[in-house]
Backbone:
């Protein structure tokens, strides 16, 4: 493999493209978003998906040569180098409003804890795994980020670099 | 009064009220944020500010800008959501002057930390291609994280010396337009950074001028015939402004074009330090801090031949 740490490889549509160096396909990626969050693949029709390094998938609205040397391309979208694939905070904020399942909506007091990376004990029963976290304020819905839900506890996945420190 | 007064005495011939200019330079700038229309709307943002008891004052000339009554806008929920971005009023002018359309291919030559880049993306409705370049590796993380937080999905970020920018990673040969918000001596940022002029010298201005001209020349080279290049700085010195534009005009590949601004400004100078410059330089615009109670800026709009 001649790829450097700035090589972005376009995800092939499906497994029939054996020449490609990517570890997953576009079809697998969009199946994950559909199965886990109910987001239809057509939502992403304008996007191309790129792998930089192993399992770090980026979403870019446009087309470029299938192997592109560049610093960044669109937004980091999903991490696929672990057993449970994980959406990024930025992907949840950008596309979360399309989600129809594994979505948790929090009131303001819990939102303010979540964005400070606190774990929340919830009276909610859902499928364990990553969930998209929303908030409602003034009748507006906000897409906040990603949480890891398990046994009644929601672990905030807000990156440390984005964590708020509120009074 | 701090030592910038002696440096700024060279601008006395350019100003109607030099002492008022110095007084304003000595007062701090308020914090201003821009609403990011890629992720939200003005109405939603105002409601959320109110719910969170964040005091804001709308900017008179731009409905997307608000003065915010906090010293750390980055530590607020709207910032985390990518709904707002800290950006000075005058800093929002160059993208408005470039005025890109959705679907365009735009080059931002000196993009970090991404305030104008993300504003360009918003003006393009996050449609098209925005190549955001910066030569400084240390400034790259801020550029990348701001673009991602603000939900910009059309940006391709490159790390290269803008003077020698290569289109090799791409499958096209020209951009529709380019923004050169050039590295400069930063005289116009004195209100937010009182130590901005600590290393000021005439030699430094001329060294920056060479760099600015080379970057601007590259921008003119990579933009299509009939396309637009906006050149801007946050400094007052004609050496880094009109003299740079004068030199690029003399190379014969572009012309200055007129534009309007929604705030008060002065025309570019056509004579400096005894040197007569191209007469069309009056089409450039200088924004002095005392004209609108802002930072200082210079903007030129060029059309590629």
Residues:
């Amino acid at each position: 493999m001649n790829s450097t740490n700035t090589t972005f490889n376009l995800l092939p549509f499906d497994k029939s493209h054996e020449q490609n160096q990517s570890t997953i396909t576009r079809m697998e990626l969009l199946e994950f978003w559909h199965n886990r969050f109910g987001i239809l693949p057509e939502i992403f029709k304008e996007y191309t998906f790129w792998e930089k390094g192993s399992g770090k998938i980026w979403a870019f609205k446009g087309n470029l040569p299938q192997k592109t040397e560049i610093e960044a391309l669109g937004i980091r979208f999903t991490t696929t180098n672990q057993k449970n694939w994980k959406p990024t905070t930025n992907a949840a904020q950008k596309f979360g409003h399309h989600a129809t399942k594994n979505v948790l909506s929090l009131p303001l007091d819990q939102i303010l804890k979540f964005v400070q990376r606190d774990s929340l004990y919830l009276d909610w029963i859902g499928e364990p795994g990553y969930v998209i976290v929303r908030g409602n304020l003034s009748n507006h819905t906000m897409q906040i980020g990603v949480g890891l839900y398990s046994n009644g506890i929601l672990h905030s996945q807000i990156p440390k670099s984005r964590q708020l420190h509120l009074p | 009064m701090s030592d910038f007064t002696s440096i700024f005495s060279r601008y006395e011939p350019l100003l109607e009220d030099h002492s008022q200019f110095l007084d304003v330079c000595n007062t701090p700038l308020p914090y201003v944020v821009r609403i990011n229309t890629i992720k939200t709307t003005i109405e939603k943002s105002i409601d959320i500010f109110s719910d969170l008891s964040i005091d804001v004052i709308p900017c008179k000339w731009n409905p997307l800008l608000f003065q915010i009554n906090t010293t750390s806008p980055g530590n607020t929920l709207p910032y985390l959501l990518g709904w707002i971005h800290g950006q000075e009023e005058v800093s929002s002018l160059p993208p408005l002057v470039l005025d890109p359309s959705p679907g365009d291919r735009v080059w931002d030559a000196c993009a970090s930390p991404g305030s104008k880049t993300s504003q360009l993306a918003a003006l393009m409705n996050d449609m098209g291609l925005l190549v955001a370049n910066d030569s400084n590796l240390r400034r790259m993380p801020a550029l990348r994280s701001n673009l991602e937080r603000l939900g910009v999905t059309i940006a391709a970020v490159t790390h290269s010396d803008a003077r020698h920018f290569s289109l090799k990673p791409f499958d096209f040969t020209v951009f529709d337009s380019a923004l050169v918000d050039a590295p400069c001596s930063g005289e116009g940022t004195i209100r937010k950074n009182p130590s901005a002029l600590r290393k000021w010298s005439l030699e430094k201005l001329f060294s920056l001028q060479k760099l600015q001209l080379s970057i601007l020349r590259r921008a003119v080279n990579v933009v299509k015939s009939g396309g637009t290049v906006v050149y801007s700085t946050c400094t007052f010195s004609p050496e880094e402004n009109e003299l740079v534009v004068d030199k690029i005009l003399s190379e014969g590949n572009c012309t200055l074009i007129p534009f309007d601004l929604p705030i008060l400004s002065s025309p570019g100078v056509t004579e400096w330090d005894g040197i007569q410059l191209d007469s069309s330089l009056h089409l450039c615009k200088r924004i002095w801090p005392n004209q609108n109670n802002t930072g200082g800026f210079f903007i030129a709009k060029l059309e590629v031949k």
